[in-house]
Amino acid sequence: MNITPFTFVEMKKKKEHIKIVNSYEMPKYLKLLAVTLLISYSISTKAQLDFSPLDRKLITYKQELGLTYSCLIEKDGKILFKKESPDFDIKTSGTLGSSSQWLTAALVLSLVDQGKLSLDDNVTQYLPIFTTYGKKYITLKHCLTGQTGIESPKGIAKLFEKNKFESLEDEVNSYASKHEILYNPGTAFMYNAIGLNLAARMVEVATKKSFEQMLMEKIVRPLSMKATSFSDNDRISPSNSGSASALDMTNFMTMLLNKGMFNGKRILSEQAVANMETLQIDANKMKDIPPALTGFTYGMGEWVLDKDAHGQPTVIGFPNMYGSWFYVDKCRGYTFVLLTKSLQMESKKETYLAIKKIVDGIIPDNGCATK
Q: Is the pLDDT of residue 23 over 70?
């Protein structure tokens, strides 16, 4: 067979190419190419999203939000937007208020995952005092869904009661002996601290460890929530004494967005996350909620802020309308934190909804149909 000079050159080039492929230089080349492509993709992605409208809106709302806050938006492990006060960055702890209940609910469900608690467990299995006072039909599920039926003190009475207990045990025992049942368990939703505090006390009895110790073990440390604590106040309250940073809350919400996974580690089961998102409360069951939460519905330890055309949750969270705003937009795949240093006296609901509308106009959805 005759080999032309051109064919011989081609064969020589192929042979040299094979040598390159088999050499140790190829993996380095591939790594360099991968990094280059990743950087190019990241730059192009960020270039497509213009957050200047959000930045301007936050400046406009400076008076409503206060001077000290941090705002963080994350998607697919990347920070899309960050705005910080000079003395309050995304790693600085701020007051969670009632949003503390979101973390408490996650802790309780982590123990349900382990089989140490069951949603059908009766409160009296752990707290016999409730049998004595005729509250034996309350279950753990009722506690997590705000349906214990137990009345909560209002106004000045609430302030006095909050400061008179030395422990979570004392406070929960008072629910049995001092508070009336207004509704049969499971028939009405009332927004108060009773359900989550009861659930947290069940955790203590079931594990023989303190609430905060279990929270650190099951939620805080696994999620690298380095600035999170429930002991900043004189007394630990599972329902309102929590504090965390914007970065901490982003880690927590990322776990929920990823169906219970965080950095390759399972924190909650997919079923636990699904339970939290499943609507538990019909509109006719909403008997006692603050005006700022009107229009939202409730799952299990978290609020459902929006649904698609089929009634499936697309936005979940636990907003504290008197300071901070936390939510997960499942449709667009991002987490949002606006954390203030301290709680405020007036609800900022309309301000927060206006901010979300701007963010949704910047980050495209994946085709989810809204209601």
A: no
Greater pLDDT, 363 or 164: 363
Gap between the Cα atoms of 274 and 211, Å rounded: 24
Q: What is the pLDDT of residues 77-112, one digit of tens each?
A: 999 999 998 889 999 999 898 999 999 999 999 999
Cα–chain-centroid distance for residue 126? 27
Three-state secondary structure readout of 32-77: HHHHHHHHHHHHHHHHHCCCHHHHHHHHHCHHHHCCCEEEEEEECC
Residue 60, both tokens: 């406009």
What's the chain's average pLDDT?
84
Tell me the DSSP string of 309-367.
TTS-EEEEE---TTS-EEEEETTTTEEEEEEESS--SS--HHHHHHHHHHHHHHS--SS
Amino acid identity, position 308: D
Closest to 285 (Cα-Cα) out of 148, 192, 143, 190: 190
Name the CATH code of domain 52-362 (choices 3.40.50.1820, 3.10.620.30, 3.30.390.50, 3.40.710.10): 3.40.710.10
94 alpha-carbon distance from chain centroid: 15
The three-state DSSP-derived secondary structure of 245-261 is: CHHHHHHHHHHHHCCCE
Q: What predicted TM-score, i.e. pTM, was given to this entire model?
A: 0.84
Interval 24-47: pLDDT, tens? 444 555 445 444 444 444 444 444
Alpha-carbon span 266 to 356, nearest angstrom: 29
Question: For tokens 């504090």, what's the residue?
Answer: 243
DSSP state of 270: H
**Nearest residue to 328 (alpha-carbon basis) of 256, 222, 280:** 256
Q: Residues 292-300: what's their mean pLDDT?
A: 88
DSSP state of 368: P
For residue 22, the surrounding DSSP H or E stretch is helix 5-22
Phi, psi of 314 (to 5 degrees): -115, -25
Residue 236's contacts (CB-CB under 8 Å, 6 or more residues apart) are 168, 210, 211, 212, 230
Distances in Å between the alpha carbon of 325 and those of 134, 277, 333, 355?
38, 18, 17, 10
pLDDT at 3: 39
